[in-house]
């Protein structure tokens, strides 16, 4: 493919840049360098994107998205990150959306997709359980069919933003027969249903994004089953390729690398350091390579293919790069690299670079650990 932007793409970039500059949330707490933002700011931002028709920016027009080309998606994400605006909560937009488009009934598509694209419904992902992370197919949360309902009992863990979400998509066990992959189904649940309890987990960055979710005799209508009973593993794998592609995070890495380069260029003790320059150059080369690989995957997706195993490669390189940039930010970030600082009124605040560094310890784990991605690649590429 041709990597030069066409005049139309340049015009599109300018349109997105102008809109982002006018509409991105202002940045009092350092979103640009990775600080966490609150629910109200995040939801207001997603509403604003939705009113422009850009929230579901990865969706085709037939399902209510803007129908961007792969290059437009890349430009959009880069400009969003450049403006220091938060990324969207990915679970419905990047994961459930494509699943419903492929496996959902027309009724499910009509019921959920417009609400997701308009920022009315926020979702979380109920895959992992205690003891079932890498070995996801060993999951035990049970759904027993009783007439026109399932009765769900069990527990999920590490559920990002479950305390914000209106709905959860879950992998549940509907049968113990056959292989462990065979008895899994994909179920949608309203978080307000009686019997669902959310308990917080605070992580090393000092924030609450993760949760445990408990299900006790939760009644779920059978029309909330996606695909057929027992097809959950196929759906789960399809969803994970979309999740891993989204984790690559090219736009945000560009933003972070720019912050690093500017910080080093302003520092008289660092700006001529061969060590700092080499580190930044290495990161830039890796990021460029990742961007082109990402564009190739997006191009295939736009032609109707699912991301496939290359999503595992993108996930590995993307997350290693995110960690590499955040490590360099700590090494060269001076005051910004301190874990604590003071705001203009002298109040203690977390420094964004160190918060980000701490959070990013997790990126090689979530979405399936990088060791598991290497196993996926080994199986596909060399048949191990
Ligand atoms: C910040 C964060 C957010 C998350 N958000 C969500 C979410 O929203 N929804 C959700 O469902 N889950 C979520 N997760 C869970 C995540 O998917 C799991 O943590 C991940 O799949 C690893 O599972 P585990 O934690 O049980 O570790 P384990 O599976 O116990 O793995 C422990 C270690 O052993 C290694 N290992 C295990 N098996 C193998 C193998 N076969 N070969 C080589 N190495 C192996 C792993 O790589 C890892 O280093 C999140 C996790 C984090 C950290």
Description:
This is Alkylation response protein AidB-like acyl-CoA dehydrogenase. Residues 124-218 form the Acyl-CoA oxidase/dehydrogenase middle domain. The protein is an alpha+beta fold. It folds into 3 domains: 7-88, Butyryl-Coa Dehydrogenase, subunit A, domain 1 (Orthogonal Bundle), CATH 1.10.540; 123-234, Beta Barrel (Butyryl-CoA Dehydrogenase, subunit A, domain 2), CATH 2.40.110; 248-382, Butyryl-CoA Dehydrogenase, subunit A, domain 3 (Up-down Bundle), CATH 1.20.140. It contains 11 helices and 10 strands. Strands 1-4-5-8 form a 4-stranded mixed beta sheet. A 4-stranded antiparallel beta sheet has the order 2-3-7-6, with no helix packed on it. Strands 9-10 form a two-stranded antiparallel sheet. The model has no long low-confidence stretch (mean pLDDT 91). Residues 124-128, 133-134, 158-160, 210, 362, 365-366, 368-369, 371-372, 375 line the site of flavin-adenine dinucleotide (FAD).
List keywords for this structure.
AcylCoA_DH/ox_N, binds flavin-adenine dinucleotide, 384 residues, 10 strands, 4-stranded mixed beta sheet, alpha+beta, 3 domains, Butyryl-CoA Dehydrogenase, subunit A, domain 3, 4-stranded antiparallel beta sheet, Butyryl-CoA Dehydrogenase, subunit A, domain 2, Butyryl-Coa Dehydrogenase, subunit A, domain 1
